[in-house]
Design brief:
By secondary structure, the protein is of the alpha/beta class. It is 40% helix and 12% strand. The protein has 13 helices and 12 strands. The protein has a 7-stranded mixed β-sheet, with helices on both faces. Bound molecules: pyridoxal-5'-phosphate.
Length: 398
């Protein structure tokens, strides 16, 4: 019964980790959960109230497939205000989350065998979404020594005549890497030599940057690529609105039209009340976003400090997003009390879950074995408790 194109498509590891944690908790285990990929606080009240008011005012019907004019205008205003990018509402398509727009962008553009360059470590969904549409993900590894960033020579070497997209995620999930102006300029110089390659910029974590780091919208530095760039963003992370499912893409009219066609034949339109709430989020006061960023920065600092004190862990402070990506190479080769060898990061994840009651995600799932992804979108008390549990479990290794 099942289509061949499902062969090899994996379920999202972060969703799978959440299911595992939920099942262990339901069985009575206490778990410190560092797998969470969303803010741990509720949507700000003024946004929720805006959604409720929209419902009461009768905004309960289908909307335009690419989103309401009010929301697309709010997005155009946001892109100009925050990113100095000028888009008209007809160059914007709203979907059920940024993920939905990325999915439809690949659906709209990939033919069998087309290649998509995905720098590793990557957000887990890109390669599978590419494969689902007949494309070939071309994974380009990086290293901690390059702050987990794609370099111009590595990009140049990965490009072929079949390359259709480069997916650039800044700030990055899972590493927190944030591309600087100079780094973007250098990558742009490579793309300028290859007009067949389009640029997809996933900027969903743009507001969460720390220390001296600043988010730079790639197109802002590379305006010459506007006719072949799709800017991806959404309200999930910035406004703690993951469950409302609103994200968007901004790009050339022909691409947005093709994405809109797919939206119209699949979901018809995003939820009307969620769109009303998203417009309020974007148009309204922004202090909740800066407060969330300050909160995450304090948690980042505590998380990094906690991990740096653990034997076998090595963790550089991330510049953005809300994840750390420590190396656990120092634990590989060690044995548990039961004599089991920790040969891979997946073994480490399972050991920490079983013996410390601490949940993390293996770096292998993000295309970078030997690491863990741990979210600090959780309270400082939880981070400290996790640290104590990890210390005890690591002390048991021989
Ligand atoms: C890098 C990245 N892009 C996109 C998304 C999807 O966000 P949305 O909730 O808007 O679909 C996520 C969610 O985890 C993400 O980490």
């Amino acid at each position: 019964m099942l289509a061949q194109r499902l062969d090899g498509v994996k379920p999202s590891p972060s969703m799978a980790a959440k299911t595992r944690v939920d099942a262990m908790r339901a069985a009575g285990r206490r778990i410190v959960d560092f797998t969470i990929g969303e803010p741990d606080f509720p949507t700000p009240p003024h946004i929720v109230e805006g959604g409720v008011a929209a419902l009461l005012a009768g905004q309960t019907r289908y909307t335009a497939s690419n989103g309401t004019p009010a929301l697309r205008q709010a997005i155009a205003d946001k892109l100009l205000r925050e990113n100095a990018l000028a888009y008209r509402p007809e160059h914007i398509a709203v979907g059920n989350g940024a993920k939905h727009i990325i999915y439809n962008a690949f659906a709209a553009t990939l033919n069998e065998g087309d290649e998509v360059i995905v720098p590793a470590p990557y957000w887990v969904s890109y390669p599978d979404m590419v494969a689902l549409h007949g494309g070939t993900p071309v994974v380009v590894p990086s290293s901690g020594a390059q702050s987990f960033k794609l370099t111009p020579p590595a990009l140049e070497a990965a490009i072929t005549a079949r390359t259709r997209w480069l997916v650039l995620n800044t700030p990055n999930n899972p590493t927190g890497a944030v591309y600087t102006r100079d780094e973007l300029t250098a990558l742009g110089a490579v793309l300028n030599r290859h007009p067949q390659v389009w640029l997809m910029t996933d900027e969903i974590y743009e507001h969460f940057v720390y220390g001296g780091a600043a988010h730079v919208a790639p197109l802002n530095v590379l305006p010459g690529l506007a006719e072949r760039t799709l800017v991806i963003n959404g309200v999930s992370k910035a406004y703690a609105m993951t469950g409302w499912r609103i994200g968007y893409g901004a790009g050339p009219a022909a691409l947005i039209k093709a994405i809109t066609l797919l939206l119209s034949q699949s979901t018809s339109c995003p939820s009307s009340m969620s769109q009303a709430a998203a417009a309020i989020a974007l148009d309204g006061p922004q202090h909740t976003v800066t407060e969330a960023a300050a909160l995450f920065e304090a948690r980042r600092d505590r998380m990094v400090q906690m991990l740096q004190a653990l034997p076998g862990f090595s963790c550089a402070p991330p510049d953005g997003a809300f994840y750390v990506f420590p190396s656990v190479a120092g634990l590989l080769g060690r044995r548990t009390r039961a004599g089991q060898l920790l040969a891979t990061d997946v073994d480490v994840v399972l050991y920490l879950l079983e013996h410390a009651g601490v949940a993390a995600i293996d770096g292998n799932s993000y295309g970078m074995p030997g690491h863990l992804r741990m979210s600090f979108a959780t309270g400082i008390d939880v981070i400290e408790q996790g640290g104590r549990l990890l210390q005890a479990a690591l002390a048991d290794l021989s």
